[in-house]
Design a protein that fits this description.
With about 190 residues, the chain is mostly helical. The chain has helices spanning about 5-15, 20-30, 35-45, 50-70, 80-85, 105-120, 125-145, 150-170, 185-190. The radius of gyration is 18 Å and the shape is elongated.
Length: about 190
C-alpha cells in the first residue's frame, strides 16, 4: 500500500480469480456482516454476559464510527466499480451486487476485526487466536476480492475494529457488577 496507488494495487489483485475462490469469498464475506456479530452476541449471552456485552458494544461503537465516516467525511469516496467505470474492465464475481459509493472505511472489515478480536481477547489458546485473526483477515480480503473495496478501505476498517475493541475491553473488563459474570444459563438455574 505504501509503494503503489490504491487503484494499481486493486488492479494487480483483481486479475487472480477462479470459481472456487469466487464461491469461497462470496460466502466468507458474510462472516463480517452485522448479522454474524448479533449471532455471536446471542450465543455469548448463554455463556457470560460480560463477553456478550464487550462484543456487542465493540461492534456497535465500531459500526457507528465507520458508518459516520462513510456518510460524512468520506461520503465522496467511490468504490472500485465506480472508480474504474469507463477506464478499466474489472472482474466481478457473478451474483454479487457491487456498490458504487461509500467505500472508505470498510464496514464488513470493521465488524470482522471488532468481532473476532474481541473473541480473541477471551481465549488463552494461541491457535484459536490465530484462527480468529485469520477469519478477520479473510473477511477483509474478501471485500477486495469481490471488488467492493480497496485495500486502504479494509486497512482502515481493521484499525477501527481493533482500536474500538481495545478501548471497550479495557473499559468493561473490570466492571464490578455481579450480573456481568452470570449468563442465561445461570439465571435459569437460579430460578
Amino acid at each position: 500500500m505504501i509503494s503503489t496507488t490504491k487503484h494499481q494495487l486493486h488492479l494487480l489483485f483483481n486479475q487472480f480469480h477462479n470459481s472456487f475462490l469466487d464461491s469461497f469469498f462470496y460466502y466468507a464475506t458474510f462472516l463480517g456482516d452485522g448479522i454474524a456479530a448479533v449471532l455471536v452476541v446471542i450465543m455469548f449471552l448463554v455463556v457470560k454476559y460480560r463477553i456478550a456485552l464487550i462484543v456487542a458494544v465493540s461492534n456497535l461503537v465500531a459500526a457507528l464510527i465507520t458508518q459516520t465516516l462513510k456518510h460524512t467525511i468520506f461520503d465522496d469516496v467511490v468504490r472500485p466499480k465506480k472508480f474504474f467505470e469507463g477506464i478499466q474492465d474489472l472482474y466481478f464475481v457473478p451474483g454479487v451486487e457491487n456498490y458504487m459509493y461509500n467505500s472508505f472505511p470498510s464496514g464488513h472489515t470493521t465488524c470482522a476485526f471488532a468481532l473476532y478480536f474481541s473473541l480473541a481477547l477471551f481465549t488463552k489458546n494461541k491457535w484459536i487466536e490465530l484462527l480468529l485473526f485469520s477469519i478477520a483477515l479473510i473477511v477483509g480480503y474478501s471485500r477486495v476480492y469481490l471488488s467492493q473495496h480497496f485495500f486502504v478501505d479494509i486497512y482502515a476498517g481493521s484499525i477501527i475494529g481493533v482500536a474500538t475493541t481495545l478501548l471497550v475491553y479495557f473499559l468493561f473488563r473490570n466492571l464490578k457488577a455481579q450480573w456481568l459474570d452470570k449468563s442465561l444459563i445461570n439465571s435459569f438455574n437460579a430460578n
